[in-house]
Specification:
Blueprint lengths: L1 H8 L33 E4 L5 E3 L3 H8 L3 E11 L32 E11 L4 E4 L8 H12 L11 H5 L34 E4 L5 E3 L12 H9 L3 E4 L10 E3 L4 E3 L4 H6 L5 H5 L16 H8 L23 H10 L3 H8 L2 H6 L9 H13 L9 H9 L13 H7 L14 H14 L13 E9 L5 E8 L2 E3 L9 H16 L10 E3 L1 H9 L2 E2 L4 E2 L4 E2 L2 E7 L5 E6 L2 E3 L5 E3 L2 E3 L4 E3 L35 H8 L5 H10 L5 H11 L12 H4 L21 H9 L4 H10 L4 H10 L50 E11 L7 E8 L2 E6 L2 E4 L8 E8 L4
Parallel strand pairs: 13-19, 14-22
Antiparallel strand pairs: 1-2, 1-3, 3-4, 4-5, 6-7, 6-8, 8-9, 9-10, 11-12, 11-18, 15-18, 16-17, 19-28, 20-21, 23-24, 24-25, 24-28, 25-26, 26-27
C-alpha cells in the first residue's frame, strides 16, 4: 500500500510545497466564501499556494491553476451529551490538526466537544488519503502535511514590516531633559513658527517649537526651519505632528541624521499636553473603557434597544458581521453599503465574473473580497433560522441560546486596512473615516468599470468673497459626505444645560456627587443653518488687493447625489488630543428637502476677483540646493559635463547616480543640457494667468517639468505622468505609487479644472471637506460621474456611536428594509422597536423621484 501511495503521488510531488517562513496558511476560511472547516463541506487547502477553498470553489482553483493536491480539513462540533462528567476535556481524534485555528462560532468550549479530521484529496478524481499516514506517504509529503496542520493562523503572522526593525533607539531619548516653558500643543491649527507653512511640521521634543521640515526637489516639504532650529540650539529630537497615534510617532534625530525610536515618546509628548496613554485605554472584552466618572448608560441602552424583546430575523440581507475586537466600525459601514443597489449590482451581481477573473491570490484582490463579503451578507447562506427540532429541544432544556453567528470579516479587514496605520490596528476607529477610506478604495479599483461610489459623489460650489473689495470667486470641488455642525448654542434646553454646568462645577469644587447629566437637544434646522452660514477663510490672499485680507466662504450644492451621506459633527478634540463626543440629540427628519441649498453661480450684481496667483514663497536656501557631490563626481567620471551632472542629481532628488543617469540620457539633446543649474520654476513667478479662460490654477496644479522628466525617463508616458503628478499634488514619491496603482487607461480629457480654480490657500476646512485628497479625482463630475437630480431625500439608514470618543465605545447601525427598521449589532440582527434616530452619528438618505 505504501508503494502504491508513493507511486500515486509521484506526478504531483513537484507541486507539493512545505510552508516556508513568511508563507500564510489559510486553513480557517475560504478565499471566496465564508466556508470553514466547520462548514458542511469542510475546507480544502492547496498544498502549493496554501489558500483555502470551500467545496463550491475548490474546482475553480483546480481548473485555473492545475494544482491537484489539497488537504481537506473538517471539524465536527457536537454539544456534550446530558449527564457527561463536568469539566471533561473535549475529545480530539487528531490533537494538533487545527492548532491556532480561530473558531467560526461563539461557544464555550466546555459545553461542546469536537473531532478534527484531515485528509489529502487528489483532483480531479477526488482520491482521498486519510491523515496522519506517516508510514505510507513519501517523506516530503509527510513533512508538508505536518507543517500545514501545525502552521499558525494566516492572520497571526502579520508582524510589522522589516524596515521598522532597522530603526534604532536614539541615544538622546533616555537623557532628554525637556524645558519647563509651559508650551502646550493644540490638536489642530498648527503652522511653522517662522513661516506660514502648515504641512510637514515637526515638534521639537526639547522646547516644543513647531517648525517646518526641509524643502524637497519637487516643490513640496518646507523651508527647513526645523533643521535651522537644531543648528541654533542643538536640540536633536523632533516628532512629525501628523504621525502621532496611540502606537507611537515618527521621530527624527538631527544629530544622528536618521529616523529613530524614542521609547519614552509618550512621556515626552505628554510634557506638551499630548496624552498618548489616554488614547490607548481599553477593556478586556474588545470595547474601550470610558474615561468619564459615569458611563453614558442611557445612551448604550437606547441605541442598542436594550431591555426590549427584539425579534431575530434571518435570510437574505439579514446576516450579521462578527466583531473581531473593536471592528464594529467596519461592520456597520459595510452593512449600509451593501444595502445600496449600486454596490449590490457591482459586486454581487457580477460575482461569477469577478471570481472567474480573480488573480491567483484572491485574498489580495479588492473586487474579490468585496464580492465575497457582499454575497455573504445578501445570500442568506449564513443566516438560517434554527430547525424546529432545535427550538423544541431548547424549550425542553429551558435554554435560549444565541442562534445567529454572523460572518467573520477577517480576510476583508486585513486587505482594506493593509498599510493604514489606524485601520490595521485593533483599536476602535471613526466610522466616517473608514467609510471615506472604502470609497477611496472603490474609486481606485473601478477604473473602466461601473463605479458604485458615484452614487455618493456630488459637486460643492464654494463662493469666496474679499471683505474689503466685496469681489468674489466661485469654484467647485468634488465631495462624498456633508458634515453638519452641532451648534450647542442653538439647544432648545439651553437653560437646563447652563444649570447643569453650574451644578457640575460646584460639585467639583466641593468634591461632591456630580449631578445627573443633561443631554442637549438641537433642532436639525439649526445644524443646516450653521452649515450654510459664511465662515472665515484663514490666510486668504486677495488677488484684487494683491495682499492678504479678510475673506469669507459659503458653500452650496452644485449637484445633488443619488445617495446623501450626512455626518453630525459630534466629536471635538480636547486639549489632551483625545477626541471627545458632545452629548446631544438632534431631531433628524425622515424626509429632507435641500432644494434651497442648490448653487446659483455668479450673480449679475457680483464682480469677480482677478485671475492672479499669489507670490510664491521661496525656501531660504534655494540659492544653495542640496546636491550629493559624490553622485555628481561618479557621473562626471563617465564623461558627462559637470553642470549637467549637478542638474541630474538635483532634479532626481539625490536618489542616487542610477536615477540621475536616466535623467541625463533623457535630456542629453536639450540645448541647455550643460548650462549651470537654475530654478526658473521657483525663482520666476512666471507670466500672469489672467488671460486664461479657466482662471488661475493653484500652486502645484501644473506639474514641474523636472518632475515630469523624471517620470518619463523611467519609461512612463508623458500624459500619464502629468496625470499622476496632478493627482498627488506634484509629490513625486506619491506620483510613482499612483502610477503603479492606476494602470494607464484611456483618458476622456474632456476634463475641466473646475476643482482647481482656487489659489492654494487650503480654504475649504469647511464642514463638508474631507482629509483624503485622493477622494477628489482631478477629473470633474460633469458627466456620468455625478448623478444629479432633485434635492429631496428619504432616510434609509443611520450609524450610531456609543461612548465618549471615536477611539472608544461601540457602533451599531439601523437600516430600513421592506418598510421596517432593522438593527444590526455585530452578529445580531433584529427587528427594531424604537430606532434612535435622534442619537445617530452618520445618516444615509436616498433621493426621492421627482414625481
Amino acid at each position: 500500500m505504501a508503494a502504491d501511495l508513493g507511486e500515486l503521488l509521484v506526478p504531483y510531488m513537484p507541486t507539493i510545497r512545505v510552508p516556508r517562513t513568511g508563507d500564510r496558511v489559510f486553513k480557517s476560511e475560504c478565499a471566496f466564501s465564508f466556508d470553514s472547516p466547520e462548514s458542511e463541506g469542510g475546507l480544502y487547502v492547496c498544498m502549493n499556494t496554501f489558500l483555502g477553498f470551500g467545496r463550491e470553489h475548490v474546482e475553480r482553483h483546480y481548473r485555473k491553476t492545475g494544482q491537484s493536491v489539497y488537504m481537506h480539513l473538517k471539524r465536527h462540533v457536537k454539544e456534550k451529551t446530558t449527564g457527561a462528567a463536568g469539566g471533561a476535556i473535549p475529545r480530539r481524534r487528531n490533537g494538533k490538526v487545527f492548532l491556532d485555528l480561530e473558531l467560526n462560532r461563539d461557544f464555550n468550549g466546555e459545553d461542546f466537544e469536537y473531532e478534527d479530521e484531515a485528509k489529502l484529496v487528489i483532483f480531479p478524481d477526488h482520491f482521498e488519503i486519510p491523515l496522519p499516514n506517516i508510514e505510507e506517504l513519501p517523506a516530503l509529503v509527510t513533512i508538508a502535511c505536518d507543517a500545514v496542520l501545525n502552521a499558525p493562523s494566516a492572520y497571526k503572522k502579520q508582524e510589522p514590516e522589516s524596515w521598522e526593525e532597522e530603526i534604532q533607539v536614539s541615544r538622546h531619548a533616555r537623557s532628554l531633559r525637556q524645558l519647563d516653558n509651559g508650551v502646550r500643543i493644540p490638536p489642530s491649527g498648527w503652522k511653522c513658527q517662522k513661516c506660514e507653512m502648515r504641512e510637514n511640521l515637526w515638534l521639537n521634543l526639547k522646547d516644543g517649537a513647531v517648525l517646518c521640515g526641509k524643502w524637497f526637489f519637487d516643490g513640496s516639504g518646507g523651508n527647513g526651519h526645523a533643521l535651522e532650529h537644531y543648528k541654533e540650539t542643538n536640540f536633536p529630537l523632533a516628532v512629525k505632528l501628523d504621525t502621532i497615534t496611540p502606537d507611537g510617532a515618527d521621530v527624527y534625530s538631527f544629530e544622528e541624521e536618521e529616523a529613530v525610536l524614542d521609547p519614552h515618546i509618550s512621556e515626552h509628548l505628554s510634557h506638551f499636553g499630548i496624552d498618548m496613554l489616554q488614547m490607548q485605554k481599553r477593556t478586556e472584552n474588545g470595547h474601550h473603557t470610558e474615561n468619564t466618572s459615569r458611563l453614558r448608560v442611557s445612551e448604550w441602552e437606547v441605541i442598542q434597544e436594550s431591555g426590549m424583546k427584539l425579534k431575530l430575523v434571518y435570510g437574505s440581507g439579514y446576516t450579521g458581521i462578527k466583531n473581531l475586537g473593536n471592528s464594529c466600525y467596519l461592520g456597520t459601514v459595510m452593512q449600509v453599503l451593501f444595502s445600496i443597489p449600486d454596490f449590490q449590482r457591482m459586486f454581487v451581481g457580477n460575482l461569477q465574473r469577478i471570481f472567474d477573473y480573480s488573480p491567483l491570490d484572491p485574498t489580495q484582490d479588492f473586487a474579490t473580497q468585496m464580492a465575497k463579503l457582499g454575497h455573504g451578507l445578501l445570500s442568506g447562506q449564513y443566516s438560517k433560522p434554527p430547525m424546529k427540532s432545535e427550538l423544541i429541544e431548547q424549550v425542553m432544556k429551558e435554554e435560549h441560546k444565541q442562534q445567529q453567528r454572523g460572518i467573520s470579516p477577517r480576510m476583508f479587514k486585513a486587505l482594506v486596512s493593509r498599510g493604514h496605520p489606524e485601520f490595521s490596528s485593533n483599536r476602535q476607529q471613526d466610522a466616517q473615516e473608514f467609510l471615506l477610506h472604502v470609497i477611496n478604495l472603490v474609486e481606485r479599483n473601478s477604473a473602466g468599470l461601473e463605479n458604485p461610489s458615484d452614487s455618493f459623489r456630488f459637486l460643492v460650489e464654494e463662493r469666496i468673497q474679499c471683505c474689503q473689495t466685496r469681489r468674489v470667486r466661485y469654484s467647485q470641488r468634488v465631495d462624498y459626505c456633508i458634515q453638519l455642525p452641532a451648534p450647542i448654542e442653538a439647544a432648545t434646553n439651553r437653560e437646563e444645560l447652563l444649570a447643569f454646568e453650574a451644578k457640575r462645577k460646584e460639585a467639583e469644587e466641593n468634591m461632591g456627587t456630580p449631578p445627573e447629566p443633561v443631554r442637549a437637544r438641537i433642532p436639525f434646522t439649526a445644524c443646516l443653518q450653521a452649515f450654510t452660514e459664511p465662515e472665515n477663510v484663514p490666510d486668504f490672499w486677495s488677488s484684487a488687493l494683491q495682499a492678504k485680507s479678510a475673506g469669507v466662504k459659503t458653500s452650496r450644492f452644485a449637484s445633488f447625489p443619488e445617495y446623501l451621506i450626512v455626518q453630525i459633527k459630534k466629536f471635538t478634540f480636547g486639549v489632551d488630543w483625545v477626541p471627545k463626543k458632545l452629548d446631544l440629540t438632534i431631531d433628524v427628519p425622515d424626509f429632507l428637502d435641500l432644494s434651497r441649498l442648490r448653487a446659483t453661480g455668479l450673480q449679475a450684481n457680483e464682480e469677480e476677483l482677478p485671475d492672479l496667483m499669489p507670490p510664491i514663497v521661496l525656501p531660504e536656501d534655494t540659492r544653495a540646493p542640496e546636491i550629493d557631490e559624490t553622485a555628481v563626481m561618479q557621473l562626471a567620471e563617465m564623461g558627462f559635463p559637470l553642470e549637467a551632472c549637478r542638474k541630474a542629481v538635483y532634479y532626481t532628488g539625490n536618489m542616487g547616480p542610477e536615477m540621475a543617469f536616466n535623467w541625463i540620457i533623457a535630456h542629453m539633446e536639450e540645448p541647455d543640457f550643460a548650462e549651470p543649474l537654475t530654478l526658473p520654476s521657483l525663482m520666476d513667478p512666471g507670466p500672469s494667468t489672467s488671460d486664461s479662460p479657466t482662471g488661475a490654477a493653484p500652486i502645484g496644479n501644473s506639474p514641474p517639468e523636472e518632475s515630469i522628466s523624471i517620470l518619463t525617463s523611467m519609461g512612463f508616458p508623458r500624459a500619464h505622468s502629468i496625470h499622476a503628478l496632478k493627482a498627488t499634488n506634484n509629490n513625486l514619491e506619491r506620483a510613482l505609487d499612483w502610477i503603479f496603482t492606476h494602470p494607464e487607461e484611456e483618458e476622456t480629457d474632456a476634463l475641466s479644472d473646475m476643482a482647481d480654480t482656487e489659489p492654494n490657500d487650503n480654504a475649504f476646512s469647511s464642514a463638508n471637506s474631507h482629509s483624503d485628497n485622493t477622494l477628489s479625482p482631478d477629473r470633474d463630475g460633469s458627466g456620468s460621474r455625478v448623478k444629479d437630480g432633485p434635492g429631496r431625500y428619504e432616510l434609509f439608514a443611520f450609524i450610531s456611536h456609543m461612548g465618549a470618543s471615536t477611539m472608544s465605545g461601540h457602533y451599531v447601525c439601523h437600516i430600513k428594509k421592506e418598510g421596517r427598521w432593522v438593527i444590526y449589532n455585530d452578529h445580531k440582527v433584529c427587528l427594531s422597536e424604537r430606532p434612535p434616530k435622534d442619537l445617530g452619528y452618520i445618516y444615509f438618505y436616498h433621493r426621492l423621484s421627482s414625481s
